[in-house]
Structure prediction request, 229 residues.
Amino acid sequence: MQAGALTACTDAPYPPFEYEEAGTPSGYSGFDVEIMQAIADELGLELKVQDVAFDALQSGTVLAAGQCDLGMSAITITEERKANIDFSEPYYDSLQSLLAPADSGITAITDLAGKKVGVQQGTTGQTYAKENAPVGTVFVEFPGDGELWPALQAGQIDAILQDHPVNIEHAKADPTYVLVESYETGEQYGFAFAKGQKTALREAVGAALAAMRTDGRYDEIYGKYFAVG
Prediction:
């Protein structure tokens, strides 16, 4: 898009993957952002970040329109999305999970009948919830986690079903909320590119990511956000 710059679209906040942070080169931080910053550095480019709606990103709309060079927003690689998006190699393995108030009485997804469960539009979490929650569950859609989390805190919804690491961050931040369950879904995240338009860039990003895995930079960033124990 711009000489000397790599412009990445993301939907923030979505901690620990992307969130605003003054003082960083791009004005954003998080696992995705630090990985992409390292890739930009490897390619000799300045990372610029644009905040967009996730649904427009996962559908490929903003990529096809040339609004950004690539998407980095905890985007799960799916066959449906591949129809409109070219993906990098996977860079993160993820789960889905259910978050609820500790005193809610919700102990499993089977307890959601008659409850309002918040989901993010256009996500694999939304798909999982609709395929696995019991009959009678009320699905309330939100643009992103920036609206989901406040809605749960305000009592507008009874639970959130979304990516596991994001729910973990909320449970850590406020112990009155608990991670009820996690779900093995075999999901992997990839960086997204406009279909058939960014082959050279996609290959360059892949090579930079491979170099990071080889020299330990990837593991260093991963350990910062997903340390075990």
Summary: The first strand starts at residue 5 and ends at 10. The chain has a mean pLDDT of 95. Residues 199-215 form the longest helix (17 residues). Residues 5-91+190-225 form a domain with the D-Maltodextrin-Binding Protein; domain 2 fold (CATH 3.40.190.10).
